[in-house]
């Protein structure tokens, strides 16, 4: 931008030095223009926009701690005799991977803390990814033009699961080895290629000698590399498409109301990074996670009760536990539906559906507009219902994944729990959908009432002719803007079978389906009141305010004062706490 | 030697040799194998009588007047003193209510009374005796070997950390975190509830002691990584993360977000 040295002699010495440095760089890179444009970029403000930041920061912690762990971890299944300092395992055969994990835990300085930070932050990372995704889903932030970024996000979620699972198996302890055995079962259940796929992945018969080093290269190179690349794409797209914002006064589809990146968001984001880092470090210093030394080394002939995966894979384990025992024998080959459906088909359908959801919704609603203003979840009841349904579905499956723990903790029969959860898995999600949708519609009705009549002040008045009314008051500017942001989605019209001239409509069936889906999405929505209705409503609120006005005059004159038995204040009584205290002191 | 050499080709010699060989092998095996369980600790006559009285009072309604068993409880003939001691000294017997499994609860008999009942049941038929202090002494046992044996024989029900686990239809393998060496040894000998019997043939005394040593190490083990969350594995860790930690992170985000206004 500027190629001349600033001759601003009145500036602060620090500014002068900074300015000179900036000029020095700018003259070589031409960076000032870029920086000026981007550092003053405006972002909207809301706490839920920071959920993605939690994911990013915990991922940074994962990367940093993971790098430390690679310095000492040995991804080898070669058998060694353990001679480290953990006595109950001394002299036992184990894989080098497990032995090096024990060394990290007991003999490397800071090793256990770093290991626990790595594991805790990994759990938090996936949790933050999931919560961030639900925020985007519930607010409709995935709508045009952000569908691609949604798909990138879904890919990142899948990669986060992959990163977690590959890492979970690396210590090669009895717990994770049992999980690996389940993965092998799922691989083998894939028709036709399953057996060979399992041989290929494990390098021969289970457990083979290759799986740990293969998981390792995926865990430290392939998966994090892909995550880093996609995170970059994810952020660049947020940057160029601008961040969505919640409705509010002055916020439209064409602007972004918020603060600039420098200095506000730099400070906020930097501070938040240290909060996330601090919480993870504190947690890892105080709470143990995955005590691999207790579980012992993995050998295929041993199994431990209470084997569960980490929470984000737990739902798949639960699906396996709930699935009835179905098998088909076809031409001498067994198709294990009992593994195939919960292990492959259900996650496949879920993740495909997740990736395609923005396009499904856009097709169903015929909405081709760009959206930079977020939906309030209540204004998209079907979408919100689907989201809650997914959470309930996940919750039931995770609970099924821990059905043995539930059984022992609550003295119940594991069979009864599993049967109950099987029924709940089918009944509860639709029920959750209906309840959520009805709740959303009720909230919409309430919003409509608020727009029409103002909000209920809680004050009941008795009018001179005996009628009781509750005083409604006009909404403030912010609430008015938020509530009236509700978009009206007309249901797509039902197609005609034939036009006036009797020509058959070739798209009739497709359009009819679309009409029905559209009606399902928006048919029950409560329409926003028209401008005339709102005006009439406001008139109403004004009338009530006029009735109430004399009372307010009285209120303003006298102060209600608790110290005098809650009676109205009268002239001559002390008005402030200080005056009252002084008065009480003078009495005693 | 003429006596032998003259007769070694006689037709009855083969039969005699076979009989002798069988006698040596069988007798030797019996001498080695039958030592442990058969020796039932016989209490004094008064102790046995006291035991019978207590049995008739507290146990016979289910186990029958002669301990022969009934619809409601198994026969106790031949279960041995170890079984009686385990069931009564952990409070599992007498059961307070019929259920999938007898839970450990408050003990209602004194050690003397339990010893009397054990003596009476042991007097009915031979069975596993209460382990001696020598058998329970695991001071010199190899802890690490015990760990291997524990993971092979016990972990699939009691969980690798000894925290217990669920079995079918409301049955369960209890946590071993508060079990005494004697209880564990008796449980291995007698196979209470759903537990298989680990007799001295399948699991010799030395190996039982190693397992005792390992369980003791598990019970004593400090948690070097901080709060242990009951060592119940990833589900509990995940729950803790969601409820305590993620709530704190969201609270921090809300706090920062609020500062905007």
Task: Give a short overview.
Chain A has 588 residues and is mainly alpha-helical.
Features:
heterodimer; A: mainly alpha; Cytochrome Bc1 Complex, Chain C; two-stranded antiparallel sheet; 5% strand; globular; B: mainly alpha; Cytochrome Bc1 Complex, Chain D, domain 2; two-stranded antiparallel ribbon; 2% strand; extended
Please, could you describe this protein's structure?
The complex is a heterodimer of chains A (588) and B (261). Chain A is mainly α and 588 residues long. Chain A is built from 20 helices and eight strands. Chain A has a two-stranded antiparallel ribbon. Chain A has a two-stranded antiparallel sheet with strand order 2-3. The radius of gyration of chain A is 32 Å and the shape is globular. Chain A starts with 12 loop residues before the first helix and ends with a helix. Residues 1-6 and 563-567 of chain A have low confidence and may be disordered. Chain B is an all-alpha fold and 261 residues long. Among the domains of chain B are: 45-124, Orthogonal Bundle (Cytochrome Bc1 Complex, Chain D, domain 2), CATH 1.10.760.10; 133-220, Cytochrome c-like domain (Cytochrome Bc1 Complex, Chain D, domain 2, Orthogonal Bundle). In chain B, 55% of the residues lie in helices and 2% in strands. Chain B contains 13 helices and two strands, in the order ααααααααααββααα. In chain B, a hairpin with a 5-residue loop joins strand 1 and strand 2 (172-173). The interface between A and B is large, with 73 and 62 residues.
């Amino acid at each position: 931008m500027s190629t001349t040295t600033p001759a601003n002699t009145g500036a602060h010495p620090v500014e002068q030095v900074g300015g000179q440095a900036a000029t020095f760089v700018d003259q070589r890179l031409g960076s000032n223009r870029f920086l000026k444009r981007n550092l003053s970029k405006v972002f909207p403000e809301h706490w839920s926009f920071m959920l993605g930041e939690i994911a990013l920061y915990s991922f940074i912690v994962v990367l940093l701690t993971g790098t430390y762990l690679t310095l000492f971890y040995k991804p080898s299944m070669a058998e060694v005799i353990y001679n480290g300092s953990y006595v109950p395992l001394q002299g036992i055969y184990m894989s080098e991977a497990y032995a090096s994990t024990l060394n990290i835990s007991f003999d490397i300085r800071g090793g256990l803390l770093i290991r626990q930070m790595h594991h805790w932050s990994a759990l938090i990372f996936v949790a933050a990814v999931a919560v961030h995704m639900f925020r985007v889903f519930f607010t409709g932030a995935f709508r045009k033009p952000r569908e691609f970024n949604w798909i990138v996000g879904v890919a990142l979620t899948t990669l986060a699961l992959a990163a977690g699972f590959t890492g979970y198996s690396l210590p090669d302890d009895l717990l994770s080895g049992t999980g690996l055995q389940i993965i092998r079962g799922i691989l083998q259940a894939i028709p036709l290629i399953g057996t060979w796929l399992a041989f290929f992945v494990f390098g021969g018969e289970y457990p083979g000698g290759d799986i740990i080093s293969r998981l390792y290269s995926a865990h430290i190179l392939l998966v994090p590399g892909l995550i880093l690349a996609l995170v970059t794409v994810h952020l660049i797209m947020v940057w160029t498409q601008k961040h969505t914002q919640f409705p509010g006064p002055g916020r439209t589809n064409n602007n972004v109301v918020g603060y600039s990146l420098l200095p506000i968001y730099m400070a906020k984001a930097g501070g938040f990074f240290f909060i996330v880092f601090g919480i993870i470090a504190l947690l890892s210093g105080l709470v143990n996670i995955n005590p691999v030394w207790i579980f012992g080394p993995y050998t295929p002939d041993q199994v431990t009760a209470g084997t569960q995966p980490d929470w984000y894979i737990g739902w798949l384990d639960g699906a396996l536990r709930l699935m009835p025992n179905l098998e088909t024998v076809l031409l001498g080959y067994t198709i294990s539906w009992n593994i195939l459906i919960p292990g492959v088909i259900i996650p496949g359908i879920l993740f495909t559906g997740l990736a395609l959801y923005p396009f499904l919704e856009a097709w169903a609603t015929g909405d081709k507009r760009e959206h930079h203003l977020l939906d309030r979840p209540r204004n998209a009841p079907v979408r919100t219902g689907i989201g809650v349904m997914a959470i309930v579905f996940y919750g039931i499956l995770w609970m099924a994944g821990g059905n043995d723990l539930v059984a022992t903790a609550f003295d119940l029969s594991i069979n009864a729990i599993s049967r109950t959860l099987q029924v709940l898995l089918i009944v509860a999600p639709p029920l959750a959908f209906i309840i959520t949708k009805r709740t959303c519609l009720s909230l919409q009705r309430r919003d409509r009432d608020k727009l029409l009549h103002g909000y209920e002040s809680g004050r009941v008045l008795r009018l001179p002719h005996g009628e009781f009314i509750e005083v409604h008051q006009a909404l403030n500017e912010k609430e008015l803007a938020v509530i009236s942001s509700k978009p009206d989605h007309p249901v797509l019209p039902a197609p005609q079978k034939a036009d006036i001239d009797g020509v058959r409509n070739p798209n009739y069936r497709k359009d009819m389906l679309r009409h029905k889906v559209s009606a399902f999405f928006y048919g029950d929505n409560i329409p926003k009141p028209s401008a005339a209705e709102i005006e009439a409503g406001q008139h109403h609120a004004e009338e009530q305010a006029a009735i109430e006005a004399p009372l307010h005059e009285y209120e303003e004159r006298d102060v209600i004062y608790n110290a005098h038995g809650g009676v109205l204040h009268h002239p001559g009584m002390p008005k402030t706490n200080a005056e009252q205290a002084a008065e009480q002191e003078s009495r005693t | 030697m003429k006596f032998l050499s003259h007769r070694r080709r006689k037709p009855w010699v083969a039969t005699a040799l076979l009989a002798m060989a069988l006698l040596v092998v069988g007798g030797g095996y019996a001498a080695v194998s039958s030592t442990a369980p058969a020796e039932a600790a016989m209490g004094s006559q008064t102790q046995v009588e006291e035991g019978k009285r207590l049995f008739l009072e507290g146990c016979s309604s289910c186990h029958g007047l002669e301990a022969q068993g009934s619809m409601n409880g198994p026969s106790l003939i031949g279960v041995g003193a170890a079984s009686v001691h385990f069931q009564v000294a952990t409070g599992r017997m007498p059961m307070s209510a019929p259920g999938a499994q007898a839970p450990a609860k408050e003990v209602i008999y004194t050690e003397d009374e339990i010893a009397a009942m054990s003596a009476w049941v042991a007097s009915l038929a031979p069975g596993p005796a209460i382990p001696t202090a020598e058998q329970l002494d695991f001071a010199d046992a190899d802890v690490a070997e015990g760990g291997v044996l524990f993971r092979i024989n016990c972990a699939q029900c009691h969980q690798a950390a000894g925290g217990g686990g669920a079995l079918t239809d409301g049955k369960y393998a209890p946590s071993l975190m508060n079990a005494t060496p004697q209880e564990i040894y008796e449980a291995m000998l007698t196979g209470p509830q759903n537990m298989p019997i680990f007799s001295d043939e399948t699991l010799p005394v030395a190996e039982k002691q190693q397992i005792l040593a390992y369980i003791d190490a598990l019970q004593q083990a400090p948690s070097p990584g901080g709060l242990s969350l009951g060592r119940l594995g990833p589900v509990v860790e995940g729950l803790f993360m969601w409820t305590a930690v993620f709530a704190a992170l969201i609270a921090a985000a809300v706090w920062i977000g609020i500062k905007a206004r």
